[in-house]
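In the previous chapter we treated chains in isolation. Here, by contrast, the input contains two separate entities that must be folded as one system, with a combined length of 711 residues.
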Amino acid sequence: MSGYWSQYLEVDLTTESIQVKPIPTHVSEKYLGGRGIGAYLYLQYAPDPNVDPFGEDNPVILAVGPITGMPVSGSGRASATTRSPLTNTLLDTNAGGMFGPFFKFTGYDALVVKGQAERPVMLNISDKGVEILDAQSLWGLSTQDTTKFLKEQSSQGASILSIGQASENGVLYGSVCVDGHRHFGRGGLGSVWASKKLKAIAVKGTKRPEIGNKEAFDAANYELIKVMKANPITSKVLPALGTNALMEVINFFGMLPTRNFQKGVFESIQKVDGEAIADTLLRKQSGCWGCVIRCGRRTEVNGISGDGPEYETNWALGPNLGIDDLSVITQANYLCNAYGMDSISAGGSISYAMEATEKGLHDFGIRFGEKGKLIELIHKIAACQDEGKHLALGSKRLSDQFGGAEFAMNVKGMELAAYDPRGSMGMGVGYATSNRGACHLRGGYSVGYEELGTPRRINRLAVSGKGTHVARSQDIGAFYDSAVVCRFNSYAVSMDIWARILNGVSGTDYTSAEVEAIGARVHNLERLINLKLGFSKKDDTLPKRLLTEPLKEGLSKGRTVPLEEMLQEYYDYRGWDDQGIPTPATIERFQLKEDVPWL
Amino acid sequence: MILLSECEGTGTMNEGRKSIRLTFFSIYRMELGVQTMEHTIRQDTITVEKLIVEADQMLDGRLIPLLEVDFEGIPNDVLIMINGTSIFYLEGFDTLLKDKDEVAFIPMVFGG
């Protein structure tokens, strides 16, 4: 098929062997690329997926999609799959920047890294082939310093993936940084890399994949550009304010999680919203490969430049901790980037620690609002020192050790994001059923429909119908992640246009319903893997606080999440039994039996 | 940035006047230079449409083009909330407003 190379690289760090292997066309047709191919290849390498996340049998898959590297806005991303050390679920994560297209241009659709090196190494992938290089001198460097060094060494302007000290030291939510400023953030991909002694990957190639039907592609792309220019989100709001445009809006709805989800309204919101950033810290916009939105924020504080904070980080290290000092929040954000660790999980672990301290469960040495202690604590988490060694493990393990599970705000071990589901019922069932834990995106991002009314309005506080709606949103998201296109572009671009873009690239004939079904297939495959890993209906839940403690003020006052009703509808829509297990008919419908060894 | 301005509607300002608070979010606030304004009304009630028209006059004709509303059906690109409820769930632009009601104008925003 056009748009594909139909092959992937396998690198064995134990034996230092490198092979090129085929990806059959029927596999690409079933799973597209990215997240879908990642789940498929994961099972090829771990047919019993119950591997130690830090063991040599846990494969890491980096994958791109058919649209990656094409002249389409939003095509500059890449996906990664492994078993998460934070959640122990299957993990997929993706990131923007330049890596996706640059990797695509080397002539491969995916890279599988297995085994473990004896000493720190990096991979160099180019038109000339693949090299496993010594990286001992890079071990212990930040993501930015690693990136800077390798870019200077690369005469060809390579794209660089790197881990930082957080992963090397044992933080369970270590990230992989893209070119010094984007991240494969959630779930601990970087921590898995560190267990393999994989420090960095450099890629640069010159091969360009063919477009199958250029006339059809150009027609669909023309429409894509038109709708993006016409849509206020992609043409005005995101470019002007970035993701922090959400801050005050979510706070208005009374669902900005404040002080570890104790409240839904942050009293100092205007000190940390998008306008505050634009007025004080913003220096310029930044964007991923080929993107017209350019939602990234290049900022400066106290003479130091960096990227962000984005909405999630600003929230996680700000209102979530009772902190309203943008300077402190931004510096903490810079450190998370440099050390290479997920800011949402860092913030969720710190907010647990603050509440546990105030409740007398354990003195972690920090309370809500103590901004003067935040920076030092971030350093200690990255170094796994003192109290940092506890916080490095995430809120679930913290509560396992110190108590307070009812306010350890995670699902399946992944910390919740910047939306309180007591103000957005769909987010509740979304967090509970996301395959990688409490992810707002993998959970279907229902807040878009419920709060913001786009692409269509649904009542945020209604319960009936939410299970169905969230399942469909998750499937659409899984398609985006498998085609590896940016969700932000997708706020303007319909599934119909994406299907036509895909058909133009690959010469296929998918309808929008068929590509949504591919997303459903991917979600079901991931679910089967998680069930095999021991997860079950009992894990499709929310922290007790959200189920039993009503919000006390704001537009979402008095609300808790009636999860069970939505969950049963969700299971029904998905074709799962009442224990959340895909039925034989569902497995047959998505042709999964041939790809899942234990079925 | 004007945090709060008092704008007279078509009535006359006097003690015990009736007013409606308008709050603008995100790029609306940035482009109008107004975060919140109190709009005086002479009648007991006013429709959302009329409020917007009057407020537009007070804002030198900048509001309606910014909101991109034509008062036909429910707008797609702006959330108009009356005391926390979208006009989508009320009477649309015919929704009646009264003294001390709060109207929020929220542009389509999105994030991660």
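Chain B has one domain: 2-10+19-107. The longest helix of chain B spans residues 48-58. Compare these points with the single-chain example from earlier in the chapter.
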